Amino acid sequence: MHRLALPQVTVCAVTSVNVHATVKALQHCLDRVIFAECLLFTDSASHESDERIRTIPIARISSSHAYSDFILTRLADFVASSHILIVQWDGFVLDPTQWDEVFLGFDYVGAPWPQFHDGHDVGNGGFSLRTRRLMDACRDPNFRSGHPEDLAICRVNRRMLEKDHGIRFADRATAERFSFEREAPAAPTFGFHGIFNLIPVLGVEAFWGLYQSLDDRSTARVDYPTLMRQLGDGRCPARRRCELTKDWVSGLFAR
Q1: Which pLDDT band holds residue 253 (cuts at 50, 70, 90)?
Q2: pLDDT tens digit string along 159-203?
Q3: CA-based, 20 to 30 A from 103: which of 35, 36, 135, 219?
Q4: For 201-207, which contacts have Cβ atoms below 8 Å and span 24 or more sequence positions?
């Protein structure tokens, strides 16, 4: 496979859970794209090594709120390139031939959100391209910090970022070509995000291999109905569906 060269982009992931799966997501990206650098921020010392990935030790990310705070206040300190591609364990580069230099002209590009209809519907942070300029703007004293961080950037503070810092958010059509999350793509995209998209992307058996490595399955519990529909088409053994059901039930009692 021909690898795309993006010397102005650093690919990053920040996590204290599902570290094995996060490394796999970064490796998927690195197999398809040559980046300026690849950074993994984690407190884990036991994950597998890959010379292409530079691990930066951090204090444990103890909650999703702590993740948002790190992204908004600390991530930019470690990145030298002009752009940052943020990925999580359940999203990565799919098709490097779908890359468009137009993406670099925006300060934020992420998959559209189908639940919003006011024009501020871009975009999902789990697989998102951002500029250092945006990340610096997020440390403006007038920025209203919040969780999740992508909503804080793209909705709560969007008008301020546009007015005071000249930040440019991708239009919906561009965002749809960049990535998909909760809406099926009309055409191939550069990347994706979401556990509910892993089965079509990886196949059932590869998905289960990844799923069994997870130490935090909370996203699977949230999207249990979608996953069960995907697994219930006869391709997946009943024992696998039973395992997912047990995890979902245990998650209900843990709340």
Answers
A1: very low
A2: 999 999 999 999 999 999 999 999 989 999 999 999 989 988 998
A3: 219
A4: 201/94, 204/231, 204/235, 204/236, 204/240
Name the residue among 91, 53, 67 with its Cα closest to residue 189.
91
Extract the tokens encoding 251.
Answer: 């998650």
Residues 6+ positions from 112 with CB-CB distance below 8 Å: 121, 122, 123, 124, 172, 175, 176, 181, 183
> Does residue 95 have a pLDDT over 90?
yes
Find out whether 95 and 33 touch, Cβ atoms under 8 Å. Answer: no
The CATH H-level superfamily of 4-193 is Spore Coat Polysaccharide Biosynthesis Protein SpsA; Chain A (3.90.550.10)
Share of the chain above pLDDT 70, in %: 91
d(CA 62, CA 43): 10
Is the pTM above the cut of 0.85?
yes
For the chain, residues classed under CATH 3.90.550.10 are: 4-193
Cα maximum dimension of the chain: 55
Cβ(175)–Cβ(109) below 8 Å: yes
- Residue 80 scores a pLDDT above 70: yes
Residue 76 has pLDDT above 90, yes or no: yes
